Amino acid sequence: MPEPRRLLDVAIVGLLGMMLVDGLPDYLPGIPTASRWLDPVVDVTGLEQTSWKLFAPDPDHINTWVEAVVTWEDGSTSTWTTPSWRHRTLLQKLMHARWHKAADNLRLDSWRRLRPQLAEYAARQAVPPTPGLAPVHVEIFRHWWLVPPPGRREAARRRFGRLPPLREDFPGTKSIHDKDLRPRARGVQPGGVREEPAP
Amino acid sequence: MRERFVAAWDRFWHTPADPRVAAGLRIGVGVIVFLAFLFQAPYATTWWGEDGLLPSRVARRLLDPDAGSVLLLLPPDDLWLWACFGLAMVQALLLAVGWHSHVQAACLFVWLVSFQHRNQLVIDGEDAVMRLITFFLIFAPISERWSLDALRGRTPRIRSGWALRMIQIQVTFVFLAAGLEKLPGSMWRDGTALYHIFLLDDFYPRFALPEVIAGNLWVSRLMSWGTLALEVAVPIGVWIPRTRALAVAAAIFFHLALDLLMNLYFFEWIMIVGWLSFVRWDEDLPWLGRWAAPAASPATAD
Question: What is the number of domains present in chain B?
Fold first, then answer.
């Protein structure tokens, strides 16, 4: 029967092994395989590390925000957006902190399975122009601006007037999800465009 | 040879920890976790509620099935969410004041795991550091000083300092792993990483950086290479007795500078609390050490 301290030593070695395998960079030999094997253990125990890629291997050099355009049953539209990072008080900064990660993930295709849920959430959050209207359609857009390399910084500053530019000025826009929430009223198109009746 | 190894191993892992250090960590973690929950309260239903971004039926479908959560075992009702949320906040406060400290640390660990596993969309580095340090606090002598437990004379005797060592190693590991992850990055090597980071609006500083800093490539190079050097040097220096205090001071200065310059929520603060596990009260803070009764044989980096 091993003495209790030696059992504790075995636990220490196990904890150190979990830390190293789960937390070291994937480019080190053997780490991806070992970490796949260990994954269920660290998840079940709640002792998983996280990716310690803090701005690594290179910082993302993209600014993004996500916008949802909600179409209501009468064809009118409202927008819901992820919070703006500028002009926030310290309190807002702390309260919105998790939106940093959420907005960053929601724009990524690796989280695309969550977009239908995001559409429903945006429809609940958006304020209809007339109270009581039901949402019929949501389209989600990703907007982005790529940080220019240092040699093109001055040109970018002249173009936008400030760096980083205001998010409304971001040049990149792409529709990343389009969802009907319920059958639209006759003639109402996504984005609130009313179809002209046929002559 | 074997005897020498066993003796060195025992000295490193099982020398009793300084209860003042453990108590400082208990208070720091309790306060930070409480504040982290408090500031999440306005968006709690967005992140964990049934009308939020990830209702439980979707979470069960999308998330890792191995990553269990108490929240997913309860009925899908926001009343349960608020009950758990409130209980977690209360237990964080009770940990800070040291009332049944070890029970609170264990429960808080379960809450942190549960909330983090329930919505992995919004989880970041600080959450992992809070969770892992809280786990090790369960086994550290956290109740012997500055606690209601100590006032009541109800503190378990913990003879081994292994848990405090694990906190030291965990904090060091975060720093080292972050440095190793950056090494293959071309922007860190050519020194333009900070130039790019200064132009990210979600991490944008609390105040507009003057052009002489944000637009100056040499400033970016100095800060990028300095970050790399620090992330590799501190995890080594902190284990060498002669450089320990300097390494801890450098790490704390680094985190304070980042907190000033960037929007990083509580990451810097929970890391600073973690680095305090290396402080030797009687050497580094003699005036405070005299105020708080000294401890026998504190376990630190030597």
Answer: 2
